[in-house]
Amino acid sequence: MPDRSALARLPKVDAVLDAEPLCAARWRRPLARRVVQRALADLRSAVLDGKSVDIPDAAGLAATAAATLESWVQPRPLRVINATGVILHTNLGRAPLSRASIDAMADAARYCDLEVVLGSGKRGSRFAWLRPFLCAVMGAQDVHVVNNNAAALLLACTVLGTPGGVVLSRGQMVEIGDSFRVATMAGAGGVRVVAVGSTNRTHLRDYAQALDGEGPDAEGVAASALLWCHQSNFTQNGYVKEVGLAELSKLAKARGIPLIADLGSGSLGDGLPAIEPTIGEYLEQGVDVVLASGDKLLGGPQAGIIAGTAEYVERCRRFPMARALRPDKTTLAALHATFAAHAREGVPDLPLHEMVARDEAGLRARAEAIRAELGWDASAVVTLQAAIGGGSLPGDTMDSVGLWVPCAKPATTARVLRLGSPPIVGRIEDERLLLDLRTVERDDDPRLIEALAALSDA
Ligand SMILES: *Cc1c(COP(=O)(O)O)cnc(C)c1O
């Protein structure tokens, strides 16, 4: 039975707003009013649901509302220490940016020469200063940059797949994550996606038929482009066949239509495992337009890269939808700094590449130092398997070293670490709470020690 007398005891909105905790903090009154009204509504429905509720007085509710407002205005997203061992962790923001990229973003965030040529004082293009450099690094004729790779796929397929649609093998109808499907995004602009082949086997003749408007899904309309999608997050074994890019490219050239290839990861090589194809390799195999993410193996900000033949890239750039997909100035600044890192000899000075290159001995030394500092016994230092992640390199892990946190309830302790400042995100495996050091910035070791020491005090 709802306790109706409790409802009568709920404080009045204005009394709460005038109570010390809220009025002293000087929040805008209409905003504070909405927060208080929401809190009162929650209390009311809890009472009506028959729950036993402590009815706060005006000052008590004002304190709660003030705390809510205070938490809302704290900077977000929170920086976290990634101890998961997954370098490109999509839920943790994929590639961590280099210092140079972060500085470049901060500079660009103020006034910058985004669309002005300083020499002449005239209006310029926001990509003009970036294009020749990016093209030279990738070995592409032309490049256009959009918000993310999903946008690159949408734009390239909408522009180049008109009017007949794009042809995609059933073996490459990939789901990337969070329900993002390549075939869905390719067709999201209203372009037809013609599925050819079977899950495990697709032949050159399947593609050729679709370009002739023949075959079960072509419905008599000749397709306008070929779409290839890198099987970035899975592998197929057994009785399988995919047509190679070089062969597909010949078919596309013979028909005078573009071959679009969604590479996803955007590797430029440069010290990363060679099993992941690079943008340059795709172009060399005759792909007309390569699509890639900026924040995967490239090691930069969220962005989508459309690189390839001048004529096709130019058509994408000129299409009205391009304006709706354009990246902001801070993204361009970070992308530029990322390519600058790729331009120099050796392993690029980017966190992703540095983390991949870390050797086991160095990681072990760090783990031992942390363990000794905490007074944990030797078994706390463990060999682990880290991954690049981000939908790249399926099943490919690298040896790593980390800490097995001694605790009775791994899930509870993991939560305590996640709610710390800064939050530390580890992983639980076989009932063990593990912190992989490969993905932890070296500068964060003292913070790790501090948080772990506080645990054992508890
Ligand atoms: C990751 C990925 C995408 C999506 O890229 P976003 O930058 O996250 O939009 C598309 N295609 C492939 C093959 C991918 O691996």
Explain what this protein looks like in three dimensions.
With 458 residues, the chain is α/β, with parallel strands linked by helices. It has 3 domains: 4-72, no CATH class; 81-88 and 352-457, Alpha-Beta Complex (Aspartate Aminotransferase, domain 1); 98-343, Type I PLP-dependent aspartate aminotransferase-like (Major domain) (Aspartate Aminotransferase, domain 2, 3-Layer(aba) Sandwich), CATH 3.40.640. The chain is 40% helix and 16% strand. The chain has helices at residues 4-9, 13-18, 20-25, 29-48, 58-72, 99-108, 131-138, 149-160, 182-186, 204-211, 245-255, 279-284, 310-318, 321-324, 329-343, 351-357, 360-374, 410-418, 445-457, and strands at 81-82, 86-88, 142-146, 166-169, 175-177, 180-181, 193-196, 225-229, 259-264, 289-293, 304-308, 381-389, 397-404, 424-425, 427-429, 432-436. The strands form 4 sheets. A 7-stranded mixed β-sheet has the order 3-11-10-9-8-4-7, sandwiched between helices. A 5-stranded mixed β-sheet has the order 2-12-13-16-15. A two-stranded parallel sheet has the order 1-14. The radius of gyration is 27 Å and the shape is globular. The two termini are 41 Å apart. The structure holds pyridoxal-5'-phosphate. The site of pyridoxal-5'-phosphate (PLP) has 15 residues, from helix 8 and strand 9. The site of pyridoxal-5'-phosphate has 15 residues, from helix 8 and strand 9.
